[in-house]
Structure prediction request, 263 residues.
Amino acid sequence: MHTRMVTPADFSTTADISLYCYWQDELYDFTNAQKKRYPSHFRDSFLRRHRLNHNSPRFAFCVAVTDEGESGHTEGGRVIGYAIWYRYGTSEQAQRRHKDTYSMSTNLAGCGRYDANRSLAPGIERTLLYLTDTYISLFHLDKSLDRTRRKQWLSNAEESFPAIPELWKLQDLCVHPEFQRRGIAGLLLDRGKGWAKEEGCPIGLSSSPKGEKLYAKAGFRRYGTISVKDFPVDDVPLFLWEPPGLEGVFGMKGDVVMGAHGI
Prediction:
C-alpha cells in the first residue's frame, strides 16, 4: 500500500467509500437522517464535497492505493481509503496553503510545491462548485440532509480547538471496509503527521466512539469533548497529536487539556 494526493479521477471511488463507511454512523445518522431513503443524494453529497475540497485552498486530500500483487490484486492502483485535512492559522506556512498557487504535489516528504500554472483553473472550478452547492442547498435538493442538524454540528465542530491558533484538522478519514484493520488508516495519518512535523503545529480531530482506539494507538491524546444538542453521543471526544519535541506546548496536561469544551 502507498499514499498519494487525490486526483479528479478518484472522486467517484472516494464517494463510494464514504457511502460504505458512513451508512451506519452516528454523525451521518444525525445530519443525514434520510440517507437510507435517498442513498444517491447521500453519495452525491460526498462527491460534491470531495471536488470542492480538492479545489479549495488550505485543504489537503490524500488517498491510500493498493500496489500490484498486494492482497490478491493482480493490478495496483485501487483507491481503498482517503483522508482530508484542513490547515487553520495565520502563520507563513498556513498562508502559503491559503493560496491557489500552492499545489499539494507529492515529494519525498509528502509536502507541497508551488505550481503557478494551477492558479487560474482551481478558482474557476471552485466558483462553479460553490454555485452548484448553493443551488442544491437553496432549493433543498439533497433530500438525505437535515440542514438544521448539520448546521448544529458544524457550529460546534468549528469551535473545537479555540486555544490552538495553528492546527492541522483532520476533517475526514475513511478506509473501505474490505481493507480495514490493515494499517491503512495509520498510513493516511502519517501524511498529516509529516506536514505537522514540518510546520511545528499539532493535529486535531473529533472521533466517533469506535475510532478512539485507532487514534490512541496512533499517538493522539484526549484533548476534551464537544456537545451537540440532540446528538446521540453526549460528549464527542476530541484528540490532539503533537509533533515530537513539542509535547505539552499546546496546553496538554496528561491525557486531557484543562479548559477544553466539556472538561
